[in-house]
Amino acid sequence: MAIKVKIEEPTIQVKVAEPQVKVKVHDPNKRMVEFKLMLRRALNGDLMIFDHSDIDIVIMTEKKKVVAFAKDLMSDSVYGAENRLLEHLKKKGIIAFDSIQGGSVYGSLEGKIHESTELDPIKATLYEVSQWMDSERPYFKSKEAYDDMIDDYYTDPSDDESTELGEVPHEEKKGSILQRGLFAPYLYGKYTY
Fold it and tell me: What counts of helices (H) and strands (E) characterise the chain?
């Protein structure tokens, strides 16, 4: 008996994937800029910056405005900081010259951000605010150093500027305001004794 076996050669299929070539083009006109700000996003998308010691800065993304608010109390130093911020943004071409005005909140200043086709106006505004904040940092440090010096002066005075309790004797008459022998018109012309 003869058995015939048919052996088929296995077909081998090879798929060669084209290698993915990644090309990274270096554009000399673009540069990466990194900066840090103490920033939060509001529910409506506005960006709130809290780095400055006197003012809070809000970048209104939909209205395209920059608004500076007094942090605690309105004073000359707060107005000066708001004015310096908006002048910086005006000189850098971020906000319109004729748009700087008082805001709807007491003590606030605001300016309208220019439209741009080349750059994202919000990112450019954030960058310029960070640049202005860097120029203000020496002011923060000197103010903090002064406050610390005053606190130390009051809480831990030197031996020349302080006395122990009981070191200065009590005198019968102190100060320049007389307490006795004054004419008191509210006592119907009588003298006090």
Answer: 2, 8
